Amino acid sequence: xxxxxxxxxxxxDVHTHIGAYHILHGVDLDVPRGQLTMLLGxxxxxxxxxxxxxxxxxxxxxxxxxFDGQDLTGKSTPDVAALGIAYVPENMGIFADLxxxxxxxxxxxxxxxxxxxxxxxLEWIFSLFPAIKKFWLHPAGKLSGGQKQMLAVSxxxxxxxxxxxxxxxxxxxxxxxxxxMIAAFRELKQTDTTILLVEQNFNFARQLGDTVAxxxxxxxxxxxxxxxxxxxxxxxxxxxxxxxxxxx
Length: 248
Fold this sequence. Notes:
The chain is of the alpha/beta class.
């Protein structure tokens, strides 16, 4: 039996307040190194707040966030990003008035000119998302919703990252675009990139997840393998209120 993978990211008893609201109520979460962990749960369960707390966009009021042996608690967002963590928010975070090329350059922290970006990596991104190459000089704001999501993910991976935090990448996308996104994430998984991904599309989750954590009311209420959750309809119904098989 293989030993469990060591976590790259750990949250221990993390509480987050936003103004007067207590959103996270003691989150315990391990994200194994080199795996894709799905973070599932009903709307309002605290999934996005968890990602934003990891990134330092909101500060934990209690508990500890550790990444690759370092304590992230209290660090600013730029300091967190500098450690090799990229965040793709639900609103994608792209710059609508800039071209696709300019968006990519801004995301490449070590590049001052487009020529400074690793050509091999750029070609790899083009192979994942051909629309990025096709619309390279177009304003990002003119892209379709699916193309904007591809750009958001491309920006996150323009340089090697240790950890990707991605919030609902399939939301509002057509089935063909979702299939493209699944294929791209499968390829990303082969690069040993660790991914924590919030998702509402359970078929998407089933196809990609290695491990899964389910949140409810600001806490993680279930942890385990994605395959086991995908096979257990009673558990899906209890945790999520519906079954994966009903939403394929």
